[in-house]
Task: inverse folding
DNA sequence: AACCCTCGCAACCGCTCACGA
DNA sequence: GTCGTGAGCGGTTGCGAGGGT
């Protein structure tokens, strides 16, 4: 009895992904879309388990990922959201476009925790350490902490409380959206949520979009997708520990690679509503996908450079 | 130069939950 | 109700980079 393992682990590769494997996975997903992760490794010719493929795609290869360190603003968002949501990393990540739960969790554990402790704040309770340093005290339940936080809203939290209230409200009304159980329903809800959040952000004077490093498309369409030399992005295209660290900068589709028809049915929801912009200002054709539903509409997701072959780059 | 240690982060593990067939 | 699958989560591991001795 018991659950079947997600894959037959015999003969499967573990550890860091190679450029070749990434290539295969990207190729497969862009051609076939995301479906049945268990079948992906076999169909894509990978000696990995489906879960590993899924994680690799979600945490690293997805084209809509932002790379590099979290900005001050994002960090503050994480802290505030953590105060509201606790360790629900995926929920937190959903408020930070282009960031993954794993990335946020790692950043929390390696940077923010230390930072908060340095500031005399208990990262668990978000209260001054002086009042919570007694580690003999049992840890407060998250609901209790949340209640306390909501009783004393701080500037940024006012906005977050509003956002989270909207989510709660939407989550509590399944009867009004009978299709909410299916993916399309969820997508529409997500779109509506972001639309609402955008409205709040636009109407809330305490939210300053200047804090968000928006990049205009013309700024990011650069020949050969030369990566930024800034410290935050210099290691962003690949992990510093990855032997194939320049893969995303150097990797090109094979000359005979046929770009798939961007059939909405084949693309995940994240892609389905993207605009394709063609920019002829540069000496080669480049296309930028921009997510119109994102609160960071100007943030580029993918750049393709077409001269001799397609080039794929993540920003 | 060699060794050791710490750090950061990608990746993994094992589990639960949600959902559809 | 059961089963298969994907998603999500918390915790942990592995390994390269970099700094110190």
Result:
């Amino acid at each position: 009895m018991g659950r079947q393992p997600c894959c037959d682990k015999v003969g499967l590769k573990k550890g860091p992904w190679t450029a070749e494997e990434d290539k295969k996975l990207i190729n497969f997903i862009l051609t076939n879309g995301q479906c049945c992760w268990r079948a992906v490794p076999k169909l894509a010719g990978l000696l990995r388990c489906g879960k590993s493929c899924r994680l690799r795609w979600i945490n690293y290869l997805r084209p809509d990922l932002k790379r590099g360190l979290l900005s001050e603003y994002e960090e503050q968002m994480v802290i505030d959201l953590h105060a509201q949501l606790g360790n629900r990393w995926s929920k937190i990540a959903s408020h930070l476009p282009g960031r993954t739960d794993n990335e946020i969790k790692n950043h929390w554990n390696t940077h923010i925790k230390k930072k908060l402790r340095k500031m005399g704040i208990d990262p668990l309770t978000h209260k001054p350490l002086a009042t919570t340093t007694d580690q003999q005290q049992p840890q407060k339940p998250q609901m209790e902490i949340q209640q306390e936080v909501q009783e004393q809203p701080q500037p940024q939290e006012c906005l977050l409380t509003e956002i989270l209230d909207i989510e709660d409200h939407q989550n509590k009304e399944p009867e009004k959206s009978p299709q909410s159980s299916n993916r399309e329903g969820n997508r529409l809800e997500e779109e509506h949520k972001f639309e609402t959040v955008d409205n709040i952000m636009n109407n809330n004077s305490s939210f300053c979009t200047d804090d968000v490093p928006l990049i205009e498309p013309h700024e990011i369409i650069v020949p050969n997708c030369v990566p930024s030399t800034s410290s935050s992005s210099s290691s962003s295209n690949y992990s510093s520990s990855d032997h194939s660290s320049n893969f995303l900068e150097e990797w090109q589709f094979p000359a005979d690679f046929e770009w798939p028809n961007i059939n909405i049915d084949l693309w995940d929801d994240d892609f389905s509503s993207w605009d394709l912009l063609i920019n002829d200002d540069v000496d080669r054709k480049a296309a930028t996908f921009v997510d119109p539903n994102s609160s960071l509409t100007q943030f580029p997701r993918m750049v393709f450079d077409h001269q001799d072959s397609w080039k794929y780059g993540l920003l």
Observations:
- Residues 1-8, 131-158, 170-315 of chain A have pLDDT under 50 and may be disordered.
- The beta strands of chain A are 275-279, 285-290, 300-306, 310-314.
